[in-house]
Amino acid sequence: MKKIKIPHTYVIIFYIILFCAALTWVIPGGKYVETIQGDGVKTLVYEPVERVPQSWQVFSAFYKGFVDRADIIVFILIIGGAFWIVNDSKAFDIGTAGFLKKARTFESNFLIRKMGVENFLLTSIMLLFSIFGAVFGMSEETIAFCLVLVPMAISMGYDSITGVCMVFVAAGLGFAGAILNPFTIGIAQGLAGLPLFSGIEYRIFCWVVINAAGFTWILRYAAKVKKNPQLSPVYEEDQYWRDLHTNQDAEIRYYTPKAAWYTFTGLTVVLLLFSFLYPQTTLTIGNSQMEGLPLIPLITVLFMITSFFTLRKTVHLYILNLLFFTIFFLIIGVMGYDWYIMEIATLFFALGMVAGLANDRTPDELVKLFMDGCKDILGAALVVGLAGGIIVILQDAHVIDTILFRLSKGMEELGQVATVGMMYLIQNLINLVIPSGSAKAALTMPIMAPFSDLIGLSKQATVMAFQFGDGFTNMITPTSGVLIAVLGVSRIPYEIWLRWIWKFMVVLIILGFLLLIPTVLIPMNGF
Asked: Would you say 460 and 446 are in contact if contact means Cβ atoms under 8 Å apart?
């Protein structure tokens, strides 16, 4: 039997763009217009507009897609170049070997031994990223972490899909649970006129259930791959990571050059200056704030102490220490100072430069390493821009709002359970073309919330339908720049990812619907 050849990811994206362009000749144009009623209440009213069918624009959509996703594209290139410099030091190899060796000491604990050390490690890492997704909506940040966790998963005997699950999928499960995510729950509840983060008790329960189901699925898959690596659908693609690990298996010389001490001194001065400028930090966690925390001075002192002792051993441990504190500053920046892609990219760029200088690399060598990293990850950056063309076609044709309007009209004669299920389905479908949670909340909640009032449906149930519909399909939609970037840096073709994850998505989507039913039938706090 002849094996079916699956097209290249770029070809699949182009086919999707052609399909969307064909739809623009069939779907009428329309848009939602904000109007202010006599009592000052703002509402969205759908108005037909002239349709703009797309034809030759399928080619210009690529250019516009690159422009629209420029921030993520540049982010990927900078991250790729920076981590190539860090990889050159072989710090990750030493760190992974030490981490796995240390993990074996946990086998003395009965509960951990019963669960399995590898399962305990995978679960711990996934739980951490799920919390990040649930609390502050970690998304773009997962791109950088995949470059660390995917090679580690390979070295542990798993595959790149397991590595992506440890970071991206785990954060996605937390994002769907969205306990305190200000970018989805915060905006949606605000637009629905609900107290911010109300109904948190049931959302915590949902987060636990979603994680339990998701982690179980991932751990079962990881165990299967561990037992027989050739069962992995990315076994051939992962040869890149295995070769990379083999090429770095040369004997490592433990040393600490003077340049490493110079970077330590320079960073200490910089951090002391920042400690003086920002002696206190206010962390925003959901709708609550923790004020007056001396986080930057505290982190500075910890960095000075830990760096001194790691430098006395080897520069490799010092570079790993730099990575850990980069993560700490990333969390503080995101939760305390509203950092986004530009600041995060700058932080990792600084990590790469400092790591290279500490490893006694010359400026010319740093440039070459950085360029090599950009070349290595260029394919991931390109596919993000190409996928952006899908959204461009639908936006330029003025058909996205029409799709939303037609879907919402189909709910008018349904019962409450069926209505919340239809809202959930609509949010899932819309997420395939509008993966931004904030944008989708701003577009859909002003329509869904008043409609739920008319039929006596809890607005909180409407918000949760948005929450689940926004969360799960982020892991499968080709219009998500973050998903495409994660797959690109992990070297997983989209078509293979689609084949692997679709059953998982079906389970999660059904689970989401089951978790919505109690919001309609059972009286709960906040509903």
From this structure: no
Beta strand pairing status for 288-293 and 42-48?
unpaired
Distances (CA, A) of 192 to 40, 48, 398, 418, 521: 16, 25, 25, 20, 20
What are the DSSP calls for 215-260, one per residue? HHHHHHHHHHHHH-GGGSTTTTTTHHHHHHHHHT-SPPPP---HHH
Q: What CA–CA distance (Å, rounded) separates 182 from 196? A: 9
Give the C-alpha distances (Å, rounded to integers) separating 295 from 242, 307, 328, 350.
39, 18, 10, 20
Task: Check: CB of residue 138 under 8 Å from CB of residue 175.
Answer: yes
Taking 70 as the threshold, does the pLDDT of residue 357 lie above it? yes
Contact call for residues 177 and 203 (beta carbons, < 8 A): yes
- For residue 5, the model assigns a pLDDT of 63
C-alpha–C-alpha distance, residues 393 and 308, integer Å:
54
Each residue's pLDDT tens digit, 91-107: 877 776 677 677 667 66
Place of tokens 């992506």: 164
- Write a three-state SS string for 15-63: HHHHHHHHHCCCCCCEEEEEEECCCCCEEEEEEECCCCCCCCHHHHHHH
Q: What is the pLDDT of residues 441-498, one digit of tens each?
A: 766 777 777 777 766 788 899 999 999 988 899 899 888 888 988 998 899 999 899 9
Task: Kindly provide the b/e burial profile for residues 427-443, where b requires at least 16 CB atoms within 10 angstroms of the residue's own CB.
Answer: bbebbebbbbbeebbeb
pTM of the predicted structure, to 2 decimals:
0.75
Q: Which long-range contacts (CB under 8 A, 24 or more apart) does 272-277 make?
A: 272/300, 274/300, 275/300
CA distances 143 to 41, 237, 500, Å, are 40, 18, 20
